[in-house]
Specification:
By secondary structure, the chain is of the alpha+beta class. It contains two helices and 21 strands. Helix 1 packs antiparallel against helix 2.
Length: 325
Protein backbone atom coordinates (compact mmCIF):
# COMPACT_ATOMS: atom_id res chain seq x y z
CA UNK A 1 0.00 0.00 0.00
CA UNK A 2 1.20 3.53 -0.62
CA UNK A 3 2.39 5.67 2.27
CA UNK A 4 3.92 9.12 2.59
CA UNK A 5 7.60 9.45 3.18
CA UNK A 6 7.87 10.75 6.77
CA UNK A 7 11.33 12.12 6.12
CA UNK A 8 10.17 14.59 3.45
CA UNK A 9 8.56 17.84 4.76
CA UNK A 10 5.25 18.93 3.34
CA UNK A 11 6.55 22.13 1.76
CA UNK A 12 3.36 23.44 0.15
CA UNK A 13 1.34 23.26 3.36
CA UNK A 14 4.09 24.90 5.37
CA UNK A 15 4.48 27.68 2.81
CA UNK A 16 0.75 28.33 2.66
CA UNK A 17 0.59 28.53 6.45
CA UNK A 18 3.49 30.98 6.49
CA UNK A 19 1.85 33.15 3.83
CA UNK A 20 -1.45 33.32 5.68
CA UNK A 21 0.31 34.08 8.94
CA UNK A 22 2.29 36.95 7.40
CA UNK A 23 -0.80 38.56 5.86
CA UNK A 24 -2.67 38.24 9.15
CA UNK A 25 0.15 39.95 11.04
CA UNK A 26 0.20 42.81 8.53
CA UNK A 27 -3.55 43.27 8.83
CA UNK A 28 -3.32 43.34 12.61
CA UNK A 29 -0.65 46.02 12.40
CA UNK A 30 -2.70 48.30 10.14
CA UNK A 31 -4.73 50.07 12.83
CA UNK A 32 -1.63 50.91 14.82
CA UNK A 33 0.23 52.27 11.79
CA UNK A 34 -2.74 54.38 10.65
CA UNK A 35 -4.07 55.26 14.08
CA UNK A 36 -4.62 58.94 14.83
CA UNK A 37 -2.75 60.83 17.51
CA UNK A 38 -5.31 62.49 19.84
CA UNK A 39 -5.97 66.08 18.78
CA UNK A 40 -4.29 68.61 21.04
CA UNK A 41 -7.15 71.05 21.51
CA UNK A 42 -5.18 72.97 24.16
CA UNK A 43 -2.82 74.09 21.41
CA UNK A 44 -5.66 76.07 19.80
CA UNK A 45 -6.80 79.46 21.04
CA UNK A 46 -9.44 79.46 23.77
CA UNK A 47 -12.77 78.59 22.18
CA UNK A 48 -16.43 78.55 23.04
CA UNK A 49 -17.58 75.55 21.05
CA UNK A 50 -16.31 72.79 18.84
CA UNK A 51 -17.76 69.83 16.97
CA UNK A 52 -16.81 67.19 14.45
CA UNK A 53 -18.61 64.94 11.98
CA UNK A 54 -15.79 62.39 12.12
CA UNK A 55 -13.90 63.90 9.18
CA UNK A 56 -13.72 67.61 10.01
CA UNK A 57 -13.08 69.30 13.35
CA UNK A 58 -14.42 72.87 13.80
CA UNK A 59 -13.48 75.14 16.70
CA UNK A 60 -15.26 78.49 17.12
CA UNK A 61 -14.64 81.75 18.97
CA UNK A 62 -17.31 83.42 21.14
CA UNK A 63 -16.14 86.93 20.24
CA UNK A 64 -16.98 86.88 16.54
CA UNK A 65 -17.30 84.87 13.32
CA UNK A 66 -14.10 82.84 13.49
CA UNK A 67 -13.71 79.14 12.67
CA UNK A 68 -10.65 76.89 12.80
CA UNK A 69 -10.98 73.88 10.49
CA UNK A 70 -8.81 70.76 10.41
CA UNK A 71 -9.01 67.05 9.66
CA UNK A 72 -10.54 65.40 12.72
CA UNK A 73 -7.71 62.86 13.13
CA UNK A 74 -4.73 65.03 12.13
CA UNK A 75 -3.00 66.81 15.02
CA UNK A 76 -1.12 70.10 14.74
CA UNK A 77 -2.91 71.28 11.62
CA UNK A 78 -5.70 73.69 10.79
CA UNK A 79 -6.87 76.73 8.84
CA UNK A 80 -8.54 79.67 10.59
CA UNK A 81 -10.98 82.00 8.81
CA UNK A 82 -12.21 85.28 10.29
CA UNK A 83 -14.60 87.96 9.00
CA UNK A 84 -12.80 91.30 9.38
CA UNK A 85 -14.96 94.04 7.85
CA UNK A 86 -17.26 95.13 5.05
CA UNK A 87 -16.42 98.19 2.95
CA UNK A 88 -18.27 100.35 0.47
CA UNK A 89 -15.84 101.17 -2.33
CA UNK A 90 -16.23 103.78 -5.04
CA UNK A 91 -15.78 103.17 -8.76
CA UNK A 92 -12.22 104.55 -8.49
CA UNK A 93 -11.28 102.28 -5.58
CA UNK A 94 -11.70 104.65 -2.62
CA UNK A 95 -13.23 103.38 0.64
CA UNK A 96 -16.38 105.42 1.23
CA UNK A 97 -17.78 103.61 4.29
CA UNK A 98 -16.71 100.68 6.46
CA UNK A 99 -17.76 98.58 9.42
CA UNK A 100 -15.38 98.60 12.40
CA UNK A 101 -12.68 95.91 12.41
CA UNK A 102 -12.88 95.47 16.20
CA UNK A 103 -15.27 96.00 19.07
CA UNK A 104 -18.14 94.21 17.34
CA UNK A 105 -20.81 92.76 19.62
CA UNK A 106 -21.82 89.45 18.07
CA UNK A 107 -24.63 87.17 19.16
CA UNK A 108 -23.74 83.49 18.82
CA UNK A 109 -26.54 80.97 18.23
CA UNK A 110 -26.36 77.22 17.79
CA UNK A 111 -28.79 76.57 14.91
CA UNK A 112 -27.82 72.92 14.41
CA UNK A 113 -30.39 70.45 13.10
CA UNK A 114 -30.49 66.71 12.43
CA UNK A 115 -28.70 67.35 9.13
CA UNK A 116 -26.28 70.21 9.83
CA UNK A 117 -24.10 71.55 12.59
CA UNK A 118 -24.61 75.32 12.37
CA UNK A 119 -22.77 77.96 14.42
CA UNK A 120 -24.43 81.29 13.63
CA UNK A 121 -23.09 84.80 14.39
CA UNK A 122 -25.18 87.94 13.99
CA UNK A 123 -24.67 91.62 14.81
CA UNK A 124 -25.95 95.08 13.99
CA UNK A 125 -22.82 97.07 13.20
CA UNK A 126 -22.35 100.76 12.78
CA UNK A 127 -21.00 101.97 9.46
CA UNK A 128 -18.52 104.84 9.50
CA UNK A 129 -16.92 106.92 6.74
CA UNK A 130 -13.52 105.48 7.76
CA UNK A 131 -12.21 102.76 10.06
CA UNK A 132 -11.03 105.30 12.65
CA UNK A 133 -13.96 107.70 12.31
CA UNK A 134 -16.16 108.45 15.31
CA UNK A 135 -19.06 109.61 13.16
CA UNK A 136 -21.62 107.17 11.77
CA UNK A 137 -23.39 107.05 8.42
CA UNK A 138 -25.78 104.23 9.36
CA UNK A 139 -25.82 100.55 10.33
CA UNK A 140 -25.88 97.11 8.72
CA UNK A 141 -27.05 93.73 10.00
CA UNK A 142 -24.53 90.97 9.34
CA UNK A 143 -25.02 87.25 9.83
CA UNK A 144 -22.38 84.58 9.32
CA UNK A 145 -23.16 80.86 9.54
CA UNK A 146 -20.60 78.05 9.54
CA UNK A 147 -22.34 74.81 8.52
CA UNK A 148 -20.91 71.30 8.66
CA UNK A 149 -22.94 68.35 7.32
CA UNK A 150 -23.53 65.56 9.82
CA UNK A 151 -22.06 62.36 8.40
CA UNK A 152 -24.42 59.89 10.02
CA UNK A 153 -27.63 61.42 8.62
CA UNK A 154 -28.92 59.37 5.71
CA UNK A 155 -29.44 61.34 2.51
CA UNK A 156 -26.89 64.09 3.13
CA UNK A 157 -25.31 64.82 -0.24
CA UNK A 158 -23.03 67.69 0.75
CA UNK A 159 -19.26 67.31 0.91
CA UNK A 160 -18.62 65.89 4.39
CA UNK A 161 -15.07 67.25 4.43
CA UNK A 162 -16.01 70.93 3.90
CA UNK A 163 -17.53 73.69 6.01
CA UNK A 164 -19.95 76.03 4.26
CA UNK A 165 -19.59 79.71 5.23
CA UNK A 166 -22.74 81.72 4.53
CA UNK A 167 -22.68 85.52 4.89
CA UNK A 168 -25.64 87.85 4.61
CA UNK A 169 -25.81 91.66 4.88
CA UNK A 170 -29.04 93.61 5.21
CA UNK A 171 -29.72 97.34 5.14
CA UNK A 172 -26.35 98.69 4.02
CA UNK A 173 -26.43 102.57 4.16
CA UNK A 174 -25.29 103.33 0.61
CA UNK A 175 -23.37 106.54 0.00
CA UNK A 176 -23.50 106.43 -3.82
CA UNK A 177 -25.39 104.25 -6.30
CA UNK A 178 -22.30 103.36 -8.36
CA UNK A 179 -20.38 101.96 -5.38
CA UNK A 180 -19.91 98.26 -4.56
CA UNK A 181 -19.17 96.24 -1.42
CA UNK A 182 -15.99 94.40 -0.47
CA UNK A 183 -16.06 91.72 2.26
CA UNK A 184 -12.64 91.35 3.92
CA UNK A 185 -11.58 88.01 5.43
CA UNK A 186 -8.41 87.06 7.30
CA UNK A 187 -6.96 83.54 7.05
CA UNK A 188 -4.22 82.08 9.22
CA UNK A 189 -2.46 78.80 9.79
CA UNK A 190 -3.34 77.42 13.24
CA UNK A 191 0.14 75.83 13.43
CA UNK A 192 2.60 77.88 11.33
CA UNK A 193 5.45 75.53 12.21
CA UNK A 194 3.83 72.55 10.49
CA UNK A 195 2.24 74.00 7.33
CA UNK A 196 2.27 77.02 5.02
CA UNK A 197 0.03 78.73 2.47
CA UNK A 198 0.38 78.57 -1.28
CA UNK A 199 -0.64 81.79 -3.01
CA UNK A 200 -3.39 81.28 -5.59
CA UNK A 201 -2.50 81.78 -9.23
CA UNK A 202 -3.89 84.63 -11.28
CA UNK A 203 -7.67 84.37 -11.36
CA UNK A 204 -7.70 81.40 -8.97
CA UNK A 205 -10.28 81.26 -6.16
CA UNK A 206 -8.68 78.57 -3.95
CA UNK A 207 -6.04 79.09 -1.27
CA UNK A 208 -4.31 75.90 -0.06
CA UNK A 209 -2.42 75.12 3.14
CA UNK A 210 0.38 72.60 2.65
CA UNK A 211 2.30 70.39 5.08
CA UNK A 212 5.91 71.52 5.56
CA UNK A 213 7.05 67.93 6.00
CA UNK A 214 5.24 66.00 3.28
CA UNK A 215 4.18 68.74 0.86
CA UNK A 216 0.63 67.36 0.89
CA UNK A 217 -2.28 69.82 0.80
CA UNK A 218 -4.12 69.72 4.13
CA UNK A 219 -6.81 72.44 4.04
CA UNK A 220 -8.20 74.98 1.62
CA UNK A 221 -10.38 78.08 1.40
CA UNK A 222 -12.52 78.33 -1.73
CA UNK A 223 -14.05 81.71 -2.47
CA UNK A 224 -17.45 81.68 -4.11
CA UNK A 225 -17.61 83.51 -7.44
CA UNK A 226 -21.26 84.56 -7.19
CA UNK A 227 -23.54 86.29 -4.71
CA UNK A 228 -27.22 87.10 -4.74
CA UNK A 229 -28.54 90.64 -4.28
CA UNK A 230 -32.07 91.82 -3.68
CA UNK A 231 -33.50 95.32 -3.91
CA UNK A 232 -36.57 96.79 -2.28
CA UNK A 233 -38.62 95.32 -5.12
CA UNK A 234 -38.08 92.46 -7.54
CA UNK A 235 -36.50 89.00 -7.21
CA UNK A 236 -32.97 88.18 -6.09
CA UNK A 237 -30.34 88.67 -8.79
CA UNK A 238 -26.96 86.95 -9.22
CA UNK A 239 -23.86 89.14 -8.99
CA UNK A 240 -20.20 88.29 -9.72
CA UNK A 241 -17.64 88.13 -6.90
CA UNK A 242 -13.92 88.68 -7.56
CA UNK A 243 -11.39 87.77 -4.81
CA UNK A 244 -8.11 89.64 -4.41
CA UNK A 245 -5.38 87.95 -2.36
CA UNK A 246 -2.50 88.99 -0.12
CA UNK A 247 -0.62 85.88 1.03
CA UNK A 248 2.47 84.96 3.02
CA UNK A 249 3.54 81.66 4.57
CA UNK A 250 1.32 81.73 7.67
CA UNK A 251 -1.40 84.31 6.99
CA UNK A 252 -3.50 85.67 4.17
CA UNK A 253 -6.12 88.30 3.46
CA UNK A 254 -8.77 88.13 0.79
CA UNK A 255 -11.03 90.95 -0.34
CA UNK A 256 -14.25 89.73 -1.96
CA UNK A 257 -15.38 92.46 -4.36
CA UNK A 258 -19.11 92.04 -5.00
CA UNK A 259 -20.43 93.50 -8.22
CA UNK A 260 -23.65 95.50 -8.08
CA UNK A 261 -26.27 94.15 -10.44
CA UNK A 262 -28.96 95.78 -8.26
CA UNK A 263 -28.20 99.42 -7.54
CA UNK A 264 -28.07 100.06 -3.79
CA UNK A 265 -29.39 96.58 -2.99
CA UNK A 266 -31.01 96.04 0.40
CA UNK A 267 -29.76 92.49 1.06
CA UNK A 268 -26.81 90.36 0.06
CA UNK A 269 -26.11 86.62 0.39
CA UNK A 270 -22.72 85.01 -0.25
CA UNK A 271 -21.26 81.51 0.21
CA UNK A 272 -17.67 80.24 0.46
CA UNK A 273 -16.16 76.93 1.65
CA UNK A 274 -13.40 75.89 4.05
CA UNK A 275 -12.39 72.26 3.71
CA UNK A 276 -9.84 69.58 4.45
CA UNK A 277 -8.17 67.30 1.91
CA UNK A 278 -8.26 63.72 3.14
CA UNK A 279 -6.03 60.90 1.86
CA UNK A 280 -7.78 57.98 0.18
CA UNK A 281 -9.05 55.54 2.83
CA UNK A 282 -10.90 52.26 3.15
CA UNK A 283 -12.81 51.81 6.41
CA UNK A 284 -10.92 54.76 7.83
CA UNK A 285 -7.46 53.39 6.96
CA UNK A 286 -5.16 54.91 4.33
CA UNK A 287 -5.31 53.19 0.97
CA UNK A 288 -1.51 52.98 0.95
CA UNK A 289 -1.62 50.55 3.89
CA UNK A 290 -3.95 48.25 2.02
CA UNK A 291 -1.69 48.41 -1.01
CA UNK A 292 1.27 47.34 1.13
CA UNK A 293 -0.64 44.37 2.53
CA UNK A 294 -2.07 43.51 -0.87
CA UNK A 295 1.37 43.60 -2.44
CA UNK A 296 2.84 41.38 0.25
CA UNK A 297 -0.03 38.93 -0.11
CA UNK A 298 0.40 38.85 -3.90
CA UNK A 299 4.09 38.05 -3.56
CA UNK A 300 3.39 35.26 -1.08
CA UNK A 301 0.61 33.78 -3.21
CA UNK A 302 2.93 33.80 -6.23
CA UNK A 303 5.62 32.03 -4.20
CA UNK A 304 3.11 29.39 -3.08
CA UNK A 305 2.00 28.84 -6.68
CA UNK A 306 5.58 28.38 -7.91
CA UNK A 307 6.33 25.92 -5.11
CA UNK A 308 3.22 23.88 -5.85
CA UNK A 309 4.13 23.74 -9.52
CA UNK A 310 7.68 22.60 -8.70
CA UNK A 311 6.47 19.92 -6.30
CA UNK A 312 3.95 18.50 -8.74
CA UNK A 313 6.65 18.08 -11.42
CA UNK A 314 8.92 16.02 -9.12
CA UNK A 315 8.75 12.21 -8.88
CA UNK A 316 6.10 11.00 -6.50
CA UNK A 317 6.96 11.01 -2.81
CA UNK A 318 5.00 7.80 -2.29
CA UNK A 319 6.90 4.61 -1.52
CA UNK A 320 5.27 1.37 -2.49
CA UNK A 321 5.81 -1.40 0.04
CA UNK A 322 5.31 -4.97 -1.05
CA UNK A 323 2.70 -6.78 0.91
CA UNK A 324 3.75 -10.08 2.50
CA UNK A 325 1.94 -13.19 1.29
Amino acid sequence: MPCADPARPRAPRALIAAALGTVLVLLLLLPSSAGAVPFDRAAWASSDASWSNGEVLCIFQPTGPVVAVSAADLPNSGLTVRVVSVEEVSSVGSVIAVTPSSGMNWTVTNRSSATWYDESYSAKLRVAPAASAVSTVGAVVLRVDFLLPISYVEGVTENLSAVTMQLSATGWPWQASEDHLVVNLALASAFPGTEHFLAPGAGDVVLSSVSNQSGRSLEYFQAGTQATEEGSTGPATAAPVAPSWSVNDSSAAVGLAIGSTVSEFTSLNYTAHVGVILPATIAGLPLSDYLIVGGAAAVLVAAVGLELRRVRRRPSDLIYVEEEP
